[in-house]
């Protein structure tokens, strides 16, 4: 009669083999499934050549304020992060926002899951420095009425050179970065006769209106209200850590900072000609110097000098974020890094913009919202509103803001594996979001329901 222990041993061996097979299957799971990116090789005129004549081709520095600006070509060092503010700096740079396209390109090039064959790619990244390419159209009066041509040369190249790459999914699997507000690149494309009769709006082009590029996903610093074509990603700050200890050291400094000032406004201080929220803030700060700190950033004083505004932010509990020419501000992300609780005055300033990086449902955890109408026309005093927020609640909001900080910073290229594996930064989340959006579009095409492509459904998570 067979020994029962023998059967138990066989069962144990079989179970172990099954478990090992399961583990092997998990190990064999493709880590790049749905994440393969092909970086399209573009002629240098679409990227590298735009940087060759930085001293004359585009003014990255304001020559009228040499004390507060970096020389234009100097802004290109460190793959677009700019020069360090001083020799001892290790994580801070004088970063020009307009060079986002350059250092984003550098970061995508060092990602895993890159493929040389576009037919194997889930997404195609176009390293086109669109914002830099627009500067001649918006700065040269002779080209102002030709700005509808911005991007037309790229469209022609994509249609002519290996057209099957673009045609495979009609461009829905392509994405690129645009260092600016989508509003500045969405002027209607008009016929020549109309253009001759009516001058174009200064400072804008029609890049986002070109039919040939209409299916591409644009990652912009500010999106419009119908985000099927573009999605907003954070404004670059000057903080670009390369290692986890440097990130943690900065966050620890922000946590332990003494904050004697109730609130701070950092921005231009010119008084508007008509009532608006910025004017109301300046008027209140002028009357409440005991509670409000103003950092004058007029004339580009802050763009290339992070110490000028980061130190005051570290000493303030709340940082006011009124809209300017457009709703969003770089100062919002500086404040989050400093642990200075952002105070918003309209939803378009952030909550409706950066869903991939700052979950909309969590804004009440790390920010304060005061409707601008109640301040400008309703007599609400900002300082009085903020003063009643308990110290414990302020600490909790500050902690939540600092928890969000790694999500909105752009870490330095070539950073340590420890940092990149511990926390996803603005580039990681932007690429992940673009891949999710592309997967949704491709599924809609495969299902024969192209109308789903243009829906406004939330793409912060997979459906």
Q: What level of helicity do the residues show? A: 25-40%
The end-to-end span amounts to: 57 Å
Supply Rg.
25 Å
Q: Domain count, please report it.
A: 2
Taking the sheet with the most strands, its summary is: 5 strands, parallel
Strand content: 5-15%
| Number of separate strands | 10
> Overall mean pLDDT score?
86
- Note the run of SSEs as H and E: HEHEHHHEHEEHEHEHEHEHEHHHHH
Main sheet: strand order: 1-2-3-4-5
Give the count of helical stretches.
16
Structural class: alpha/beta
Low-confidence stretches: 1-26, 59-69
Mass-distribution shape: globular
Region (Disordered): 63-88
Subcellular location: Golgi apparatus membrane
GO molecular function: glycosyltransferase activity
Family: Belongs to the glycosyltransferase 47 family.
How is the secondary structure organized here?
Elements: H1 4-28, E1 37-39, H2 100-109, E2 123-125, H3 130-139, H4 152-160, H5 163-167, E3 174-181, H6 192-197, E4 217-222, E5 230-232, H7 244-256, E6 261-267, H8 277-287, E7 292-296, H9 306-314, E8 316-321, H10 331-338, E9 341-344, H11 363-366, E10 368-369, H12 372-376, H13 382-387, H14 391-408, H15 417-422, H16 426-446
Parallel strand pairs: 1-2, 2-3, 3-4, 4-5, 6-7, 6-8, 8-9, 9-10
Helix pairs in contact: 7-14, 10-14
Plain-language structure description:
With 463 residues, the chain is an alpha/beta fold. The chain has two domains: 33-55 and 70-241 and 410-462, no CATH class; 244-407, Rossmann fold, CATH 3.40.50. Helix content is 36%, strand content 10%. The protein contains 16 helices and ten strands. The protein has helices at residues 4-28, 100-109, 130-139, 152-160, 163-167, 192-197, 244-256, 277-287, 306-314, 331-338, 363-366, 372-376, 382-387, 391-408, 417-422, 426-446, and strands at 37-39, 123-125, 174-181, 217-222, 230-232, 261-267, 292-296, 316-321, 341-344, 368-369. The strands form two sheets. It has a five-stranded parallel sheet with strand order 1-2-3-4-5. β8, α10 and β9 form a beta-alpha-beta unit. α7 packs antiparallel against α14 (391-408) and α10 crosses α14. The N and C termini lie far apart (57 Å). Mean pLDDT is 86; it is low at 1-26 and 59-69.
């Amino acid at each position: 009669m067979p020994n029962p222990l023998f059967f138990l041993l066989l069962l144990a061996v079989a179970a172990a083999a099954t478990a090992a097979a399961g583990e092997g299957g998990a190990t064999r799971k493709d880590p790049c499934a749905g994440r393969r990116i092909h970086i399209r090789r573009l002629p240098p005129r679409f990227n590298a050549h735009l940087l060759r004549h930085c001293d004359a081709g585009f003014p990255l520095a304001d020559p009228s304020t040499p004390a507060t600006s970096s020389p234009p070509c100097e802004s290109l060092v460190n793959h677009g992060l700019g020069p360090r503010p001083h020799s001892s700096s290790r994580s801070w740079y004088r970063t020009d926002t307009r060079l986002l396209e350059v250092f984003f390109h550098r970061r995508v090039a060092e990602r895993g899951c890159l493929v040389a064959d576009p037919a194997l790619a889930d997404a195609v990244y176009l390293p086109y420095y669109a914002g830099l390419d627009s500067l001649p159209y918006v700065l040269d009066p002779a080209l102002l009425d030709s700005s509808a041509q911005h991007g037309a040369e790229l469209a022609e190249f994509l249609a002519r050179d290996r057209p099957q790459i673009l045609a495979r999914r009609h461009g829905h699997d392509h994405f690129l970065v645009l260092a600016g507000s989508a509003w500045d690149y969405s002027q209607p494309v008009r016929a020549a006769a109309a253009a001759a009769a009516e001058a174009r709006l200064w400072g804008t082009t029609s890049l986002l209106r070109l039919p040939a590029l209409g299916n591409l996903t644009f990652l912009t610093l500010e999106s419009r209200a119908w985000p099927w074509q573009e999605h907003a990603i954070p404004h670059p700050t000057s903080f670009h850590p390369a290692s986890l200890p440097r990130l943690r050291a900065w966050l620890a400094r922000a946590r332990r900072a003494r904050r004697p000032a109730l609130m701070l406004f950092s921005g231009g201080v010119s008084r508007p000609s008509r009532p608006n929220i910025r004017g109301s803030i300046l008027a209140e700060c002028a009357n409440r110097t005991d509670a409000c700190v103003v950092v004058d950033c007029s004339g580009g004083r802050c763009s290339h000098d992070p110490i000028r505004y980061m130190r005051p932010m570290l000493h303030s509990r709340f940082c006011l974020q009124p809209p300017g020419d457009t709703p969003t501000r770089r100062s919002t992300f500086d404040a989050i890094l400093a642990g200075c609780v952002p105070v918003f005055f309209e939803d378009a300033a952030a909550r409706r913009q950066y869903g991939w990086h700052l979950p909309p449902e969590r804004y009440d955890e790390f920010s304060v919202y005061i409707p601008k109408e109640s301040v400008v026309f309703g007599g609400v005093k900002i300082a009085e509103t903020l003063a009643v927020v308990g110290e414990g609640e302020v600490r909790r909001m500050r902690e939540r803001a600092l928890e969000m900080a790694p999500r909105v910073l752009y870490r330095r290229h070539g950073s340590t594996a420890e940092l990149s594996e511990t926390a996803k930064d603005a580039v990681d989340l932007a690429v992940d979001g673009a891949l999710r959006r592309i997967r949704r579009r491709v599924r809609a095409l495969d299902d024969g329901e192209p109308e789903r492509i243009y829906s406004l459904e939330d793409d912060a998570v997979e459906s």
